[in-house]
C-alpha cells in the first residue's frame, strides 16, 4: 500500500469535475493510492481520471491502488456485492484494490443513503458485522476486490471480526481520523500488534464541511508549536503534520483541489523530523475528533463511546 494516498472527498463547494481534474493532477504528481467512496458521489469522475491516466500511458492499472467503501445502508450480506459492483461500474474498473466497510454504524437498508423517520431522525439497523464481513470475503474470492478492510472501527469492533469463527481474511487496514490533535496512539499500537495497517484521514485537521464538523473547532494548521517547527525545518505546517504521521508508520490520505497544494502535500520524502520535534508534536494531542458523528450516537454501533 503506497503510504501517501490522495483523498477524493469533496465539500459541496467543489464540482464533480473538479474532483476528476484534481485526481489527474495527483496521479501526474506521483500519487498511486486513490481513496474514494460511494457516498462521495464522484466515483464516475474519479474513475474517468484514473482511466485517462492509464490511457495516456502515465500509469498502468496495476500501478494504482484504488479504494472504495461500503455505505451504511448496504451492510446486509445480500446488498454487499451489488454495492461493490455498482462502484466498479461507476469507476469503470474490473476490480478495486481495497474495499472498506465505511463505518460500523449501519442504517436501514435501501436506496436512500440517509433514511429518516417522520421526526427526521436517522433509522439505524443492526446486521451482525461478521455477516457483512463474510460477504466481503466472498467478493474477494470472486476477484472483485484484492484486499478488504474497515474504517472508523474501534478496538472491540475490530476484535469482533478478528475473532469471528471461520475467519478467512482479516482486515488489512483500519482507516480512521488521525492528525496531530488526535494522534491515535493506542489504536496504532493495537493495529500494529495485529499486523493491521492504520490509515489516517483528515490528516490536516479537517475540510470543515458544514453539517459534519463543528465550525468552532480549533484550526490545527494554525497551531503555534506546529508552525514553529515548520519554520525551523523550512517546510509548511501541512508537510510537518503529515511527516509526523508517516514517521509513526501511519499511511496518510491527503486531499486538496489546488494543484500547487497537491504537489506540496506529496513532498514529504526529502526531510525528517528529529526526535525532539516528534515529541513536541506528540505533546499536542488533545484527543480532538473533528468528525465526531454526534448524530449517530443513538446507534448501538456508534464507535466513539470507547476510548479507542
UniProtKB/TrEMBL annotation:
InterPro entries with a match to the protein in the record: AKR (IPR020471), Aldo/ket_reductase_CS (IPR018170), NAD(P)_OxRdtase_dom_sf (IPR036812), NADP_OxRdtase_dom (IPR023210)
NADP-dependent oxidoreductase domain span: 4-285
Pfam families documented for this protein: Aldo_ket_red (PF00248)
Family label: Belongs to the aldo/keto reductase family.
UniProt protein name: NADP-dependent oxidoreductase domain-containing protein
Organism name: Staurois parvus
